[in-house]
Write a structure and sequence with these properties.
Radius of gyration: 19 Å
Number of helices: 6
Largest sheet: none
Strand content: under 5%
Number of domains: 1
Order of helices and strands: HHHHHH
Structural class: mainly alpha
Helix content: over 70%
């Protein structure tokens, strides 16, 4: 059973890392499932506290990834129309355009929302869209960092020699 759990742990974490970039897959959640698989191995040294910390970080990062586009659109000078456009662009972009849609959707949605609200203010619309695009980069970055941390923890738990080498390296 341990071998199956260890293989599932590695598989889920790796697919989770891919999911941090591909919008259809819930990347951080899949990486956390892999971390849990590793935790349930009989040889695991992962503490219960670490599992709770990674669960909390997974929830926070997942929520932040959905909130960031509207929030950064707002602080970059966008109106409510830009915020709504960014959210609509994110959802529409993921459904229609896959990865490229998820990257460009919030930007285009925020710009479109601002231009619908005030067709004469192109500068504000672009600035609002740029804030939304930066939020995508931040959200993806947070998800990747957390998923790679779980990957390192899983590999370190499954392969203690590799973990000792990594710890001694830094």
């Amino acid at each position: 059973m341990d071998i199956l759990l260890a293989l599932l742990a590695i598989l889920f974490v790796l697919v989770g890392i891919v999911g941090c970039i591909v919008p259809v897959l819930p990347g951080v959640a899949l990486a956390f499932i892999g971390y849990l698989c590793c935790f349930f191995c009989s040889f695991s040294d992962i503490s219960t506290t670490a599992v709770w910390v990674y669960l909390a970080l997974t929830v926070v990062v997942s929520i932040a990834d959905f909130i960031l586009p509207a929030y950064l659109t707002k602080i970059s000078g966008g109106s409510k129309a830009g915020e709504r456009g960014a959210v609509a662009g994110l959802i529409g972009g993921m459904l229609v355009g896959g990865l490229l849609g998820a990257i460009l959707g919030p930007f285009l949605g925020a710009v479109a929302g601002e231009l619908i609200n005030d067709p004469s203010d192109h500068k504000r619309a672009f600035k609002s869209g740029l804030g939304s695009f930066i939020s995508f980069l931040l959200g993806s970055g947070m998800k990747l960092i957390l998923s790679f941390a779980m990957l390192i923890a899983v590999f370190g738990d499954i392969f203690p020699v590799l973990w000792n080498w990594f710890v001694n390296l830094f």
